[in-house]
């Protein structure tokens, strides 16, 4: 059960949104717009939004740019997580991960099961961490974006969430790069 501690301060997080699609444009990117709307309503800042074709090299290059950008704390993508030949988002994300957050994909599929039944096995939603940047890949439907944000990410990206959240870990994500005494 998610719980917000009213005694703690809310800390806004800088989030980049990526739509992975060969056919979407800014005008009809309903999934990307769903994420932007929910992120903004939650009090976070969308610092960039892009639409990129289903191409692993293009995706890896964009992810690396955002990972290197100190103004991006989190990347959330939508699309390209299925099983078809053009679905390469998980492969691109895994190419840049330093650590995978296995529980994200597991929980996403668990939460999806009551809504879409066994079709949830077709989702390769994934989460991970690279150079202090959280990376989350959601399926390409607005419903999947709502589920991923409303049921998981909204809570884990809220600094007031108890018993723990991803925001409170952010100051320690790069400690492995600091020299030891």
Automatic annotation (TrEMBL):
Species name: Telmatospirillum siberiense
GO BP annotations, alphabetical order: Mo-molybdopterin cofactor biosynthetic process
Protein name: Molybdenum cofactor biosynthesis protein B
Pathway: Cofactor biosynthesis; molybdopterin biosynthesis
Gene Ontology CC: cytosol
Domain MoaB/Mog: 16-160
InterPro entries: MoaB, MoaB/Mog-like_dom_sf, MoaB/Mog_dom, MoaB_proteobac
Residues annotated as transmembrane: none
Described function: May be involved in the biosynthesis of molybdopterin.
Keyword Mitochondrion: no
Keyword terms, alphabetized: Molybdenum cofactor biosynthesis
UniProt family annotation: Belongs to the MoaB/Mog family.
SMART domains found in the cross-reference section: MoCF_biosynth
Signal peptide: none
Pfam families hit by this protein: MoCF_biosynth (PF00994)
């Amino acid at each position: 059960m998610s719980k917000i501690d009213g005694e703690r301060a809310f800390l806004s997080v800088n989030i980049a949104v990526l739509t992975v699609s060969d056919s979407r444009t800014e005008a009809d990117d309903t999934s990307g717009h769903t994420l932007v709307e929910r992120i903004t309503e939650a009090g976070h800042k969308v610092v960039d939004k892009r639409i990129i074709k289903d191409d692993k090299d293009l995706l890896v290059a964009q992810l690396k740019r955002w990972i290197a950008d100190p103004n991006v704390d989190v990347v959330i993508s939508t699309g390209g997580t299925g099983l078809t030949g053009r679905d390469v988002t998980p492969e691109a994300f895994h190419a840049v991960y330093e650590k995978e957050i296995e529980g994200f994909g597991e929980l996403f599929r668990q939460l999806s099961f009551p809504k879409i039944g066994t079709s949830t096995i077709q989702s390769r939603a994934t989460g991970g961490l690279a150079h202090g940047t959280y990376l989350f890949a959601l399926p390409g439907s607005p419903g999947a974006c709502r589920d991923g944000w409303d049921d998981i990410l909204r809570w884990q990206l809220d600094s007031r969430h108890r018993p723990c959240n991803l925001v409170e870990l952010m100051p320690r994500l790069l400690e492995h790069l600091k020299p030891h005494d």
